[in-house]
Write a structure and sequence with these properties.
The strands form two sheets. A six-stranded mixed beta sheet has the order 2-10-9-4-5-6, with no helix packed on it. A four-stranded antiparallel beta sheet has the order 1-3-8-7, with no helix packed on it. It has 131 residues and is mainly β. It contains no helices and ten strands.
């Protein structure tokens, strides 16, 4: 049974940093592209960063490029999102997810929101950026 569990969210001050972790079980990291997404209240889920394979370079959304860094640990079967230069607009629930319908390139930034893919998502972790 596959499972993705995020951790590391919390409260950060503007300009601060947080590191999110996603523990993956039930499949190896190289089976599916893995992405980080977020959803703020009243907004659609947004792709932030994704990794097609553990040994490839991540793709980043323009909104986080230069501030967020995604990495993977194939031994621990975990992915991470190092976030710096946080802004109040970064406040959201952050999710990691596997992409079961990867079409190549940066398409892993597109969230698979169909209910068929619910098992490929973690439960989310809240990030709040406020002074």
């Amino acid at each position: 049974q596959m499972q993705l569990v995020e951790s590391g969210g919390g409260l950060a001050q503007p300009g601060g940093s947080l590191r999110l972790s996603c523990a993956i079980s039930g499949f190896p990291l190289d089976r599916y592209p893995i992405g980080w997404f977020r959803q703020a209240p009243g907004k659609e889920r947004e792709g932030l960063a994704c990794l097609p394979k553990p040994d490839t370079m991540p793709y980043y959304a323009d909104s986080v490029k230069g501030r967020f860094t995604m990495s993977a640990d194939t031994v621990l079967n975990m992915v991470y999102l190092q976030m710096s230069g946080l802004e109040p607009e970064d406040t959201a629930v952050y999710y990691c997810a596997a992409d079961p319908v990867y079409l190549g390139g940066s398409s892993c930034l597109i969230p698979a929101t169909d209910s068929r893919w619910d098992d490929y998502w973690g439960q989310g972790t809240q990030v709040t950026v406020s002074s």
